[in-house]
Amino acid sequence: MTKAMILAAGRGERMRPLTDRLPKALLEAGGKPLIVHLIERLARAGVSELVINVSHFADQIEERLGNGSLLGVHVSYSREESPLETGGGIAYALPLLGDAPFLVVNSDVYTDFDFRRLEAAADALARGDCDAHLVLVDNPAHHPQGDFALHSGRVSLDGPARLTFSGIGVYVPALFSSVRRGTRSPLMAVLAPAMARGRVGGEHHRGAWLDVGTPSRLEQLDQQLRAQAERS
After folding, report:
1. Which of 129, 138, 144, 173 has the fewest C-beta atoms under 10 angstroms from its C-beta?
2. What is the pLDDT of residues 63-95, one digit of tens each?
3. Domain count within the chain
4. Domain range holding 193?
5. How far apart are the first and last CA of the chain?
6. Residue 1: its pLDDT value, please?
7. What is the dihedral of CA 128, 87, 103, 1, to 10 degrees?
8. Which residues of the chain have pLDDT under 50?
9. CA–CA separation, 77 vs 146, rounded Å?
10. Sequence-separated contacts (24+) of 220-226 with Cβ below 8 Å
11. Helix, strand, or coil here: 182?
């Protein structure tokens, strides 16, 4: 698995007023933009070919990251005239992602997840074992009901112990064949049918993970990272 897509096209409504002047991906925690934290972790895992979808304040993201060379990666951009949601954004970027299974991650998550762990999942998808592999985490306080159930390595909509989708997943390109390119589509439009067919695998990450979706959570992460820097 050599390619990853970072989702950075959204308007970040929950982050207003901060996102009235900056795209959410460029908001800083610990003195560094959220998306740079993520790119550095991907690079350490050996993922060097990145596709980033952009729309809201797209120029700012492209100017800040350039072609990615300063971060040890190569970045291509998928420009959306207006945000196409997750499923629509991935479908629109397929020409840049190639024919092999690829990783997708939200730009507004901070985690210690080791992306190298997904190599086996990508190999299983390439063999046709399933169509997607999701990383799930313990339910945070702001999302106690969770999203999906995980049982024997398969993800389903319903179950007794639901976990939260981390925003990290591996997908085969064919999963998005039903999404007309350039149209808006949620990720669940393709995931739900695949889950019903037993074609979505998954794993439970029990390490650090934070959905940096609000100003208060951004401040929480900033304080955490600065405290860590002072201790080291």
Report:
1. 144
2. 999 999 999 999 999 999 999 999 999 999 999
3. 1
4. 3-231
5. 33
6. 63
7. 50
8. none
9. 32
10. 221/29, 221/30, 221/110, 222/28, 222/29, 222/30, 224/30, 225/29, 225/30, 225/31, 226/30, 226/31
11. coil
